[in-house]
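Handout for the seminar on molecular recognition.
Each group receives one record of this type.
Step one: identify the two inputs.
Step two: read the structure output and locate the region that could contact zinc ion.
Step three: write two sentences on what you found, then compare them with the reference statements printed after the record.
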Amino acid sequence: MTASFPVLGFDIGGTKIAVCLGCSDGKIIASGRVDNKERHPDDVLPELVALGRQLLADAGMTSTDLTAVGISAPAPHDIPGGRITQPTNMKKWVDVPIRDYLRDAFATTAYMDNDANAGALAEWFFGTGKKCRNLLYLTMSTGIGGGIITNGRLVHGHDYLAGEVGHFSIDPDGPQCNCGIRGCYEAFCGGRAMAQRMQRELAGQPDHPIVRYANGNYDAIDMICLEKAVRDGDAYAVALWDEMCRRNAQGIGGLINIFNPEMIVLGTIAWAAGDLFMTPLQQYLPQFCWPVQLRGCRVIPSGLKRRIGDYAGISVALNYLYEQDRFQPWQEQ
Ligand SMILES: [Zn+2]
């Protein structure tokens, strides 16, 4: 297969689902969104199919023109079985066989992978990491997920669970992680864990700048409130931010020594906060990995940024085709 061909991608999120019709050369033909906030899959799934068919029709195509459908899914899930199994913010999605549902609806091959792997594939095929043979992508949002590409292949692992880079302990006496392990990298640096820590440590301080940036609502405290307070020079915020950057360097430095990647692409916080995050991270990295490994590795923010959702599902489909030698990336870019 050499000429560019169309694929349909679905990026499943707890508030919205991106549906995107694209080409194997990276061209996005059309995309749309379906609301998924606290909705039942029985209502959402038919809308996904309807939107996918609409995008095809608007482009003068039908499902017979599709080579494959790809799904980027949040954990927990059953990748070999193609099922989504009740993610934290999708309580009504209990063991939903979405891959086979979309396969049947579009009468084509459908593939599913987790959202961090999908992000890694999107950056690898179409983003900052094009043509790298050894690449890591870290999601850096509410949690820390990862996708690992080694020797030009995505690492799936024995149970399709490889790449859980947020869940190795970097301090056995550290905070309890939501996953059950103490001191996970994510328990120090994930957006949700950071928010919980700020809520706890700022209790009874409604006039603190971080709380004011959340309009006095402790439940609304997040990394954006923290970033604003850091830019104001608030002492607590500056110290917490610095600690978070150093812990990120610990996590990322360990990954550099283990995988010897030529590039690590960082998601949300890295491109949203820019130099405020990247500069201290780069300064701390030499403490946590060997100079020879660090010299060969570029640690940079995602180039796709928010557009990664449009590429995520498509990239999952393309990777499975690549693994079957039915797709060669970068030929037409
Ligand atoms: Zn954990």
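Reference statements: The pocket of zinc ion is lined by residues 167, 177, 179, 181, 184, 186-187 (CB under 6 Å). The CA atoms of residues 225 and 295 lie 34 Å apart.
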